[in-house]
Amino acid sequence: INYLPNKKSGDSLSAYHSKIIINTLLSAIQD
Question: Which member of 5, 9, 13, 16 has the lowest number of beta carbons within 10 Å of its beta carbon?
């Protein structure tokens, strides 16, 4: 699934994964 089908799709994907990692870490800290 391409939410942002453009030349920066790779950077957007990396940013998306970074957000998931950050959210996971924050959730772990809150627990």
Answer: 5
Its pTM stands at: 0.51
Q: Look at the chain and count its residues.
A: 31
User: Of 30, 29, 27, which Cα lies nearest the Cα of 19?
Assistant: 27
* pLDDT tens readout for residues 1-31: 555 555 566 677 788 889 999 999 999 998 6
Q: Which two tokens stand for residue 1?
A: 């699934």
DSSP string of 4-25, one letter each residue = S-STTHHHHHHHHHHHHHHHHH
Tokens 């809150």 belong to which residue?
30
